[in-house]
Design a protein that fits this description.
Length: 255
Amino acid sequence: MPSRSPRQIITQDFGLGKININYSRPSIKGRDLFKENSLLAPIGKLWRMGADAATQISFSDDVLIEGKEIKAGTYLLFAIPYQNKWEIIFNTDIEAGLRGYNPEKNILKVEVPVQETSFFTETFTINLHSFEFENCLLELNWANTSVSIKIETHIVERLRESFEEQLKGEKKPFFQASLFNLMLTGDLDKALEYINAALEQVPNAFFMFFVKANIEKRLGQLAEAKKTAKQCFDAAVIAGNEDYQRLANDFIAKD
């Protein structure tokens, strides 16, 4: 028979690794929740963050949860809901499943505020969103309650070391190194140096011209940026790429 609390498995790229979440999704069906002695997730009581077996979360890289370090691995995820905050618990007793909860296996606890939503979520929902290169939010929604947990990773130094090593080799990833410095380190001079080297390798790469124009704009080189955007447009016409023609025209039209 189909489960009344269907299981969902989330696999999400994050930083240089992945986050996996495996949980069951109960629906409210008119029952009380987040109240004293309520049938669902009572205030002040341990909750397995879903239905049936305890929710599992896995990280392939070390991460920070609300600023606290947790090693790569798989954990059970529990919560203790309160009126204005939730206590989120990461537990290493993976074999527990339906058996119960061993507090001696807790490896991390954090407290996060509760937010009231204007929308109603009938079926308990976990999602990951608001992604940046080194952080995202794990969000829990049920009824008119929402809780967000910040997850961070540190990848800049690892990438820097990797690019430094690769740039010593025969196949030099100039374009990727340019993007790295543009988007992650903010070193615009290096980003410009590497995009110029990349364009020497591939002279008619319209998408590289667009990256170069954005670097020049951020450096305050506005006249050079518009010239580069025109090069992007011309190369995109030759390649038959209408998307970059529109992007280049929009770039040129703006101050």
